[in-house]
Amino acid sequence: MHVVILCGGQGTRLKEETQFRPKALVEIGSRPILWHIMKLYAQQGFREFILCLGYKGEMIKRYFLDYEVLQNDLTITLGPEKRVTILGTGEREDWTVTCVDTGMDTPTGGRLHRIQSFIPDETFMVTYGDGVSNLDIRRLLRFHEEKGKIATVTGVRPLSRFGELRVESGLATAFSKGSQVAAGWIDGGFFVFNRRIFEYLDDHAWLSGDVRDVQGRATAVLQQLIDDHELAVYEHDGFWECLDTPRDLEILTELWKTGTAEWKTWT
């Protein structure tokens, strides 16, 4: 099963970092947040990744091209038949990583639309390139299968600047943009989609939020799914945090340094 990670945005609220590199490569400890997200999936058996690239996407390509070389000891044989032998004392991940340029300013739903031909699966996963969690992904997948809907989003409960999901019997009933969440849920990413999601997508689609056109019709995919009773919500009461601001980066870095990073479920 493929895991799609949306990592093409410019990360304007984190400009001190993102003026030099894409948001997905901003480091927590000595590793990009993208690596942390991929480790979470891989630890639970999901190792086929599709990365939707945009802003400074060439840096993400280079990161994975050089990954094993930079993480391991090497023997380099020079001369007419130059050869590099990786000695294997460092990390070697059993991942398949497909990097797809989905455009500089393409919205999130548009990025997903543009990688449709890369997804052979009837069911696949999608998440944002800036959120970490201790989510049980296999349990999320079972929930999605039980609900039988086109889409499942993981609902989380931090203080919100992103907008509240209202949930009844495991289904989303409304999306309130910009509200402060007291007891409700917000869109935490970590989606599971059926291929029918592509019926809702085009190059101009936004995945989340309550975005509407001048006639007041929903143009954001999550809102359209809610209107069609096709968005299930998996309620995750555990750890979730988003890297959105310099303050978020400080918090996540401190958790990692002190060994209290709850999203680190791998050994």
Overview of the structural elements:
With 267 residues, the chain is α/β, with parallel strands linked by helices. It has a domain at 135-238: Alpha-Beta Complex (Spore Coat Polysaccharide Biosynthesis Protein SpsA, Chain A). Helices cover 25% and strands 27% of the residues. The strands form 4 sheets. Strands 1, 4, 7, 8, 10, 11, 12, 13, 14 and 15 form a 10-stranded mixed β-sheet that branches. Strands 2-3 form a two-stranded antiparallel ribbon. A two-stranded antiparallel ribbon has the order 5-6. β2 and β3 form a beta hairpin. The longest helix is centred in the C-terminal third of the chain and has 12 residues, at 246-257. It is globular, with a radius of gyration of 19 Å. Residues 213-218 have low confidence and may be disordered.
Low-confidence stretches: 213-218
CATH class of the domain at 135-238: Alpha Beta
* Number of H- or I-type helical stretches: 8
- Number of beta-strand segments: 16
Helix content: 10-25%
Report the principal-axis shape. globular
Taking the alpha carbons of the first and last residues, their distance comes to 23 Å
Mean pLDDT: 88
Strand content: 25-35%
Helix and strand content put the structural class at alpha/beta
Fourth-tier CATH superfamily name of the domain at 135-238: Spore Coat Polysaccharide Biosynthesis Protein SpsA, Chain A
- Quote the CATH topology of the domain at 135-238: Spore Coat Polysaccharide Biosynthesis Protein SpsA, Chain A
Oligomer: single chain
Report Rg.
19 Å
CATH architecture of the domain at 135-238: Alpha-Beta Complex
Order of helices and strands: EHEEHEHHEEEHEEHEEEEEHEEH
Biggest sheet overview: 10 strands, mixed
